[in-house]
């Protein structure tokens, strides 16, 4: 059975459902997704960049994204500014739900750590 791909996203309908439901569970509301394309190195040793469809959303001042690098091949990262990109420590996922949940957990941990650092008293 071949899953249909949404014409404007390059993600399958099943993948979009998984992404939207996972985000709805996390945030408690429907998250506005933005779709586009990003050039990525699919292997750290490669110099060649490959265009991959992405789904992105914002959580405050953070942008999170999931890239579809092929059938059953997902990548993810989050960033605050151009020079502040973060990953999960896992280069690729073969399960979209696991990819999104891991991304959300790592970003939440990172945000919590930043908040704790901001709350530390200034040295005297």
Question: Tags for this entry?
Answer:
alpha+beta; globular; 5-stranded antiparallel β-sheet; 5 strands
Describe the protein's topology:
Blueprint: H1 13-27, E1 34-40, E2 50-59, E3 62-70, E4 73-79, E5 85-86, H2 96-119
Antiparallel strand pairs: 1-2, 2-3, 3-4, 4-5
* SS element count, helices: 2
The figure for the number of domains is 1
Main beta-sheet annotation: 5 strands, antiparallel
Mean pLDDT: 88
How far the N terminus sits from the C terminus, by CA atoms, comes to: 66 Å
Element order: H for helix, E for strand: HEEEEEH
Q: List the uncertain runs.
A: none
Question: Roughly how much helix do the residues carry, as a percent range?
Answer: 25-40%
Q: What characteristic shape results from the CA principal axes?
A: globular
Within the largest sheet, what's the order of strands? 1-2-3-4-5
Number of strands: 5
Structural class: alpha+beta
State Rg.
16 Å
Q: What is the strand content?
A: 25-35%
Brief summary of the model shown:
With 124 residues, this protein is of the alpha+beta class. It has two helices and five strands.
What features would you describe in this structure?
It is a single chain. The protein is α+β, with helices and mostly antiparallel strands and 124 residues long. The protein has one domain. The chain is 31% helix and 28% strand. It contains two helices and five strands; from the N terminus they run αβββββα. Strands 1-2-3-4-5 form a five-stranded antiparallel β-sheet, covered by helices on one side. A hairpin with a 2-residue loop joins strand 3 and strand 4 (73-79). Helix 1 runs parallel beside helix 2 (96-119). The longest helix has 24 residues, at 96-119. The chain is globular, with a radius of gyration of 16 Å. The mean pLDDT is 88.
């Amino acid at each position: 059975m071949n899953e249909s791909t949404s014409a404007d996203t390059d993600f399958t309908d099943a993948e979009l459902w998984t992404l939207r439901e996972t985000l709805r569970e996390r945030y408690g509301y429907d998250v506005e997704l933005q779709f586009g394309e990003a050039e990525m190195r699919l292997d750290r040793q490669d110099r060649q960049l490959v265009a991959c469809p992405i789904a992105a959303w914002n959580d405050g001042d953070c942008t999170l994204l999931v890239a579809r690098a092929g059938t059953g091949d997902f990548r993810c990262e989050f960033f605050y500014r151009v020079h502040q990109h973060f990953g999960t420590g896992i280069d690729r996922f073969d399960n979209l739900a696991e990819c999104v949940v891991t991304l959300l957990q790592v970003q939440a941990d990172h945000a919590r750590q930043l908040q704790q650092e901001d709350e530390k008293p200034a040295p005297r």
